[in-house]
Amino acid sequence: MLRRTLFAVAAVMVAILLICGCTGTTSGPTPADNETQQLRIATTTSLHDTKLLDHLKPIFEEQYNAEVLIISAGTGKAIEYGERGDVDVLMVHDRAREDAFLANGYGTDRRVFAYNYFVLVGPESDPAGVANMTPEAAFTAIREKGTTGDANVTFVSRGDASGTHSKEQAIWKAAGFNYTTDVQGSGDWYQEAGTGMGATLSMANEKQAYTLSDIGTYLAYKGDIDLVTLVDEGDILLNVYCAMQINPEKYPDTNTTLAKDWINFLISDEVQNEIASFGVDQYGQPLFYAVGDDWEKIGVTEAEVKDPVQ
Amino acid sequence: MYEIIEGIIEAARLIVTLDPDVMAISARSIVISLTATVVATLVAVPLGAAIYFGTFPGKKSLINLIQTLYSLPTVIVGLLIFLLLSRVGPFGFFRLLFTPTAMIIAQTVLILPIMTGLTISALSGVDPVIRDTLRSLGATRFQFLKSVMKEARFAILAAVAVGFGRAISEVGAAILVGGNIMASSFASSTRVLTTAISLETSMGNISQSIALGIVLLLIALAVNLVITMIQNR
């Protein structure tokens, strides 16, 4: 009796399993007439959590009869997925690592589709007095106060090899510090969260500490935390988002058609307008800026902004 | 405190209004974890019996190893399956990464040690007098095994309950091999209750997380009621 019940349940489950497995793996470059193609995108949590991609996804899916699967992780992990060929498109915001990715032949056809700025946020009381300083000067002041024992001054870092973490490290470097010797582990004032942006902001809020955040996540959390923007100007705070396809020469069964369609979709005029107005209703300001004609300002080439992928 | 109460209210609302997203995520959790439990049972119970009744060198060490694997971290299993199923891995050609099937595989591997070990414990709990009686009555090997398993069925079903509990509550493997994808079709999405809770928590939606947690516990309650009913037959 028990055996028979178990067997029947097992048979049903195996059947469901086969259905799940079969429909879950229909991907690949063979263009069937009306079959829905799958596009796998690896992206960073900072970008995904702003919900911009969820907003654009249905528009693309309808236009191209596709199914977009978005896997979000820290920038480091997203790049790892790209290097292993487990996705078709990579969307991140770390210029240096993107350059390495392209140079090593893992990606091609990088296009910049949006930018915004990082912000240094902190408690309203601003114990380190960094409001309106330059980012480098602010970081220096925070470290100064922190290492000389001011218990009110704490900095919470992402500490997770994410794009935001890379930017933070770049600012420390620009301020003249050696990250591993002068900052990391130099005292209780510097704490590494090892989690995503949202969780890091919550932690900084709990500790009334300073942290570096992308504007998108900060605005999304603003209602729930008491941290305020203290430094939001400075070229180094520029945050440029790009998309690239995984190199089909390295991974021939990448869905290159859909990958190209997606990238061209992102830089098309209609979608650029969509991106530029995203978030205004909810936050009173846009979360992203369309590049438009400002490619020089953000330090990229015109081709990377305007030219559709062939 | 307030968030917990908000969470309970939110849970009630999501269930009563049959919120489609939550229904889809719950259904996926159930399908994936039940499948993993069934597959693991079909492997673990015969395997446990074979190990228990067999005599071979290193038997004690093997049982020790199985019990050590009870502590296998879910994220390590996830990492292992990820490396095996990744496109550059040995089983990459199956293209199973980021699919529900991969999650089923990961959960099956995860709960195998605990179900095997508990089966062995269950069988060793059967009164030796019964075993001797069976032998003296001239039972064939098959009849012997069947009867002893029947005697131990309560404890074996408890092992199934533990296995299911571990499978449906784990996050590490599900996120690594599944990717927590919310796609437009049911079969391509890999978001389950635990990974959804993880996401909602990281985005600061505390009451949503608690609500999903309550839904998960209610599902576990329902499944365990069924198991108890079978146990008491």
TrEMBL record, chain A:
Q: Where is the PBP domain?
A: 35-270
This protein's name: Substrate-binding domain-containing protein
- Please name one Pfam family that this protein belongs to: PBP_like_2
User: Per the UniProt record, which residue ranges are transmembrane?
Assistant: none
- Native source organism of the sequence: Methanoculleus palmolei
Gene3D superfamilies linked: Periplasmic binding protein-like II
Please indicate which superkingdom the organism of origin belongs to. Archaea
Q: Which PANTHER family match?
A: EXTRACELLULAR TUNGSTATE BINDING PROTEIN (PTHR37945)
